[in-house]
């Protein structure tokens, strides 16, 4: 029962890691990669104790490697480009001036 549960946990974490690794949130895939890797190590130790061979260990580690390669690739080669910020700064200054003019036009009652 325990070994099957860890295998299922390892598969779910490995598949989740691969899915997250191909999305823009690839930096978050490190957490399921670590969970799947630890689950794979636990399965290795349990299978050595039982002298049983399981293909699931190989599949989990294969998916972990794929997710890790995708994550590292995206973190190394992904560049975020910053556009022309002069227009944004000019728009912010105009909005600030408009806000000041609106506040100056408002009459506050001193009776309150």
TrEMBL record:
Residue spans crossing the bilayer: 31-47, 59-78
Name of protein: FUSC family protein
Keywords per UniProt: Membrane, Transmembrane, Transmembrane helix
Superkingdom to which the source organism belongs: Bacteria
């Amino acid at each position: 029962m325990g070994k099957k549960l860890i295998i299922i946990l390892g598969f779910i974490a490995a598949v989740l890691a691969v899915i997250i690794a191909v999305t823009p949130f690839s930096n978050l895939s490190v957490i399921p990669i670590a969970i799947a890797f630890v689950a794979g190590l636990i399965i290795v130790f349990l299978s050595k104790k039982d002298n049983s061979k399981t293909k699931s260990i190989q599949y989990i580690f294969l998916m972990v490697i794929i997710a890790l390669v995708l994550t590292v690739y995206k973190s190394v080669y992904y560049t975020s480009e910053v556009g022309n910020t002069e227009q944004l700064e000019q728009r912010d200054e105009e909005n600030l001036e408009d806000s000041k003019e609106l506040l100056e036009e408002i009459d506050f009652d001193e009776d309150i």
